[in-house]
Amino acid sequence: MYISRLMSAKKKQKPKILVIGGQGYIGSVLCEDLIKKKTYQIISIDNKIYNQKIFTNINKKKNYKNYNLSISEKKKIFNIAKNCDFVIFLASVVGDPITKKYPSISTKINEKFTLSLLKVLSKTKIKKLIYVSTCSNYGISKKIVNEKSPLRPLSVYAKNKVMIEKFLLKEKKNFKYPIIILRFATAFGWSSRMRFDLTINEFVRNFVLKENFDLYDPFTWRPYCHVKDFSRIIYKVINNKQKIKTDVFNVGSNFNNFTKQQIVNKIKKYLKKPMITLVNKSKVDMRNYKVDFSKLKKFYNIYPKYSVEYGIKEIISKINKKPKKFSDKTKFGNYEIKKFR
Ligand SMILES: NC(=O)c1ccc[n+]([C@@H]2O[C@H](COP(=O)([O-])OP(=O)(O)OC[C@H]3O[C@@H](n4cnc5c(N)ncnc54)[C@H](O)[C@@H]3O)[C@@H](O)[C@H]2O)c1
C-alpha cells in the first residue's frame, strides 16, 4: 500500500526544468511559455543584475520559482540542479556595448563563473543541457556562414561565448548527457523583461517616440529572430526524443538576414521616421555576417515563424499603450549593472 502510494506520487512528479538566467529578456518569455504548458516544474536562477522588473506576475505562478542566486554560488545551484531533468543556460552579461562598458565583470560572469558552474553541472544526472550562445561569434564574413565556418569574435561578449563553446566541445566526454549549443540570431519582439538595447526593439522605440538617432553602419548584415521563436525552439530541443549528440546549431531563419537600413525601411512602412543620421564605417560595431540556419531545420524539423514585420507591429502597439513608461529606455535593457556577486 505504502509502496504503491509512493510510486504513484513519484509518477505524478512533473519533470523539472532549470532555467539559469530565467528573469532575462529571453528567459522570462521562455519560462512563461513553459509555465503555460503545465507539464513541467520550472525553476529559475537569476540575481537580476540590472535590478530589472518583470511586467507580469510570473513570480506568483504555482509551477515556477526563481532563486535569487548568482551563478557563482555553484554549490547551492548544484543542489537544485541534481533534482532537475533539463538545464537551460542563459545567464550572461549580454551584448557588445554592456560588455565593453564592464569588460572585467563580464569576463568574470561569462567565463569564470560560467565555467566553474558548468564543471559542477557535469556531475549531475540531468538528461540534457542547452547552452545558449550567439551568432555574433561569426563576427565578420563575406560568405554566408554555417556551423562549420570559422569563428571571428570581435567583442568581449562574443569572445566570452566562444571560450565557453570551446570548453564544452572539448570536455563533452566529461558530461554524462548531451549538450546542445544554440547560437542565437539577434533577438527582437516583446518580453516581460523588455530590452531596448537590441537593434529592432531600439529602432522601433525611437520611431514611436520620435527620437532622432544615429544609424551606425547601415549596410551591415545580421540575422534576426523573434524571442517567441527562441522559446518554441528550446521547447522542441528539450522534447526531442531522437538521439542527438553534443552539437552546435545556429538558431534563426534564412529569411530574416537583413541590413540595418532594411530594418529601418520596414519600420518606415508603419511610422513616420524621425531624423536619422547615417554613420558609415563607424567602427562602433563591426559585425557583418549572414547566417545559414538549415541544420536546425534538418535535425529538429522546426523553423522560426514570426517575421520582423510581426515584431515591429507588436512593439509599436505595446509602446503606444504606455508611451510615457518607455520614455526612459535605460530602465529597459542592459545599460547599467546594478548588482555583481
Ligand atoms: N537577446 C539576444 O539578441 C541574444 C542573441 C544571441 C544570444 N543570446 C543569448 O541568450 C541568453 C539570454 O539573453 P537575453 O537577451 O535574455 O539577455 P538578458 O540580459 O536579458 O538576460 C540575462 C540574464 O542573466 C542574468 N544574470 C547575469 N549575470 C548573472 C549572474 N552572475 N548570476 C545569475 N544571473 C545572472 C541577468 O540578470 C539576466 O536576467 C544569453 O546567453 C545571450 O548570450 C541573446
Point out poorly predicted stretches: none
Number of helices: 11
Distance between the termini: 49 Å
Task: Please give the CATH class of the domain at 12-194 and 224-256 and 291-305.
Answer: Alpha Beta
Q: Compute the CA-based radius of gyration.
A: 20 Å
H/E element order: HEHEEHEHHEHEEHEEHEEHEHH
Known CATH architecture of the domain at 12-194 and 224-256 and 291-305: 3-Layer(aba) Sandwich
What is the averaged pLDDT score?
94
Report the CATH topology name of the domain at 12-194 and 224-256 and 291-305: Rossmann fold
Strand order of the largest sheet: 3-2-1-4-5-6-10
Structural class: alpha/beta
Percentage beta strand: 15-25%
Kindly state the percentage of residues in helix: 25-40%
CATH superfamily of the domain at 12-194 and 224-256 and 291-305: NAD(P)-binding Rossmann-like Domain
Based on Cα principal axes, name the global outline.
globular
User: How many strands, what sense, and barrel or not for the largest sheet?
Assistant: 7 strands, parallel
Query: Which ions and ligands are bound to the chains?
Result: nicotinamide-adenine-dinucleotide
Number of strands: 12
